[in-house]
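for the record, two folds in this file. i put them one after another cuz i was lazy. first one right below, seq on top, structure tokens after. the second one comes after a little note so u can tell where it starts
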Amino acid sequence: MQILLSRIENKPLFVSDELVDYETVLKENFSTGTVPERNGNRGRLPKKKKLTVDDDLDYAVVHKTRENGKMKKVELRIVFGDAKRIEQKLSQSVSNKINTSYIERSNGTLRQINSHLRRQSLTFAKELKY
């Protein structure tokens, strides 16, 4: 994420499946932390910062419902951002829908090319150079 942040000027539209880690990383990198002020009571200051997510962060999630191994329903949810701004970013992209097809295809290609990423393969990946 740090490499991405160093290379972009405007925040892109982030789209993922519902893995909680994506939302956590986006919150850590696209938010400002403020320490709560004293409320007049005695004692220590609260150490935990309150994170406020940036207003211009756009993040959407694809929720897939499956029954008996078949896809029954696909729902699109906006986690952070404005629906109009997300629609505008989608109109400028190759795809006009919120989907995860590009990253899934990239992952599939990586698994096909690099046999160490495959599941249940006979490739030996325990050597130091791998």
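(here's the note) second protein begins now
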Amino acid sequence: MLNISLEDIMCDHPIKVKESTSVGNVAHLLFRYQINGILVVSDTDENKLAGIFTTTDLLRLMAEGVEKGIHRIDELGKIGDDPVSKYASRKVVALQKNDKVVKAIAIMHRKNVHTLPVYDGEKLVGVLGRHDVLNIALSK
């Protein structure tokens, strides 16, 4: 099972948001679709990846807002209105659709990432999450 191609297990219709989408709207999508990360694309080209925003990023932002003390509710509200591009991770590790699951497992573990964009050459064709890898790795 670990030697199958990513194109066989990836989500080929990933949820993407534009750079200008608010953090609050992105948080809603993460919770609604029960995903750990969302692809952030250019406002002008939905196939140009600008970064990834994850639940880990969201928790970090919330913790920073709470640490500001008495005005924490105001701080959290301001963060929710900010564009996601302000906080999205720009250093993105990506794979090709023909890469094998075993490679994705190694990268996810070594780099501590849980959302990987998948390309066909230079074209963004899907996304792979930890749950996708765990489902196939642990299936019989």
